[in-house]
Amino acid sequence: MSDLLTNSAQHGGQLGEGYGRTKPQGADFSHGIALYLEKVSVWFDSFRALNDLSLYIAEGELRCIIGPNGAGKTTLMDVITGKTRPTTGTAFFGQNYDLAKMSTEQIAEAGIGRKFQKPTVFENFTVMENLLLAAPRDKRVKKSFFSRLAPEAQLALDESLQQIRLQEFIHKPAGLLSHGQKQWLEIGMLLMQRPKLILLDEPVAGMTDAETERTAELCLELKKNHTLVVVEHDMSFIDTISEKVTVLAQGAILAEGTLAEVQANEDVIEKYLGR
Ligand code: ADP
Ligand code: MG
Q1: End position of a domain, from candidates 146, 174, 194
Q2: Which of 75, 79, 231 gets mutated to test ligand 1 (max ligand atoms within 8 A of its CB)?
Q3: Which of 62, 64, 112, 125 has the fewest CB atoms within 10 Å distance of its CB?
């Protein structure tokens, strides 16, 4: 392992280019927008989980999404990641990727990474093994488990470990980590794919106060190099990380603005915060 670490340290930022791989075209953010959702509705039978929702996320933005249970927050992430198809409306990643026409795998490869509510780390594997399992494989070598890592995976590993700050636990089985550490490991696994857009669904649910604070720091660090969409209920966490906040209720946008602005909004008080 130390080989990997030294190797990528020596090569600095130069890994990831060349090596004869065909470079994917990549998402086109030239208009400054990473994600376009236009008039998206999702129907489950006659029930509208999303109702004519339009949402634009700028490149480099950290958008927080709040709202009552059942508002459609997770469904929104399902639409972005291809797990659920919009019944009507369009969803684009950059100007060129029509998400409704792509598989979940293609969407992940295009640069959208998602952390689900529940951590899904491999408990019997160490922190390091979990990260390596999440690394992109060298596609020229058609073997699965521990087949050769793509060259850029070495750099991703260093960066990922540094960001989630689990270096001292790299040889610990993930099952022995605290709940918060498991969540960070899962974020680290997602970073191994070097996503451009990161979706986090209730990342601090069940965390201690200290873990929540650390997760806020992590989000702010991730913001330097990624576009983020974060769904959360924890208002002090939202207060720490948020710029623009979108409030969802009944599948539609109730309000948008700073946290202070949406908290002062009458509709939001009535339908979400309560009096
Ligand atoms: P949130 O994450 O904001 O709590 P969800 O997006 O999970 O809300 O759910 C929105 C609504 O859609 C809920 O009423 C939920 O029961 C419903 N729903 C979500 N997924 C499905 C599904 N696959 N089939 C039927 N109803 C669903
Ligand atoms: Mg949810």
Answers
A1: 194
A2: 75
A3: 125
- Structure tokens that stand for 83 in this block: 């797990």
DSSP string, 50-117: EEEEEEEEETT-EEEEE--TTSSHHHHHHHHTTSS--SEEEEEETTTEEGGGS-HHHHHHHTEEEE-S
In a domain, 22, yes or no: no
- The total domain count for the chain is 2
Whether the CB of 164 sits within 6 Å of ligand 1: no
Q: Do 106 and 35 belong to one domain? A: yes
- The parent domain of residue 133 ranges over 119-194
Q: Which of 194, 219, 250 is the last residue in one of the domains?
A: 194
16 — pLDDT class (breaks 50, 70, 90): very low
| Model-wide pTM > 0.90 | no
Is 50 exceeded by the pLDDT of residue 12?
A: no
Same domain for 233 and 163, yes or no, is no
Residue at 127 is within a domain: yes
β-sheet bridge partners, residue 63: 229, 244
For residue 14, give every residue at least 6 positions away whose Cβ sits within 8 Å of its Cβ, in sequence order, or none: none
pLDDT at 3: 40
pLDDT class of 117 with cuts at 50, 70, 90: confident
The confidence score (pLDDT) of residue 141 equals: 55
d(CA 42, CA 76): 9
The CA distance from 181 to 169, in Å, is: 10
pLDDT at position 165: 94
Distance 77 CA to ligand 2 centre (A): 9
- Whether 75 lines ligand 1, by a CB cut-off of 6 Å, is yes
Measured in Å, residue 232 CA sits from the centre of ligand 2 at: 9
Q: How high is the pLDDT of residue 20?
A: 40
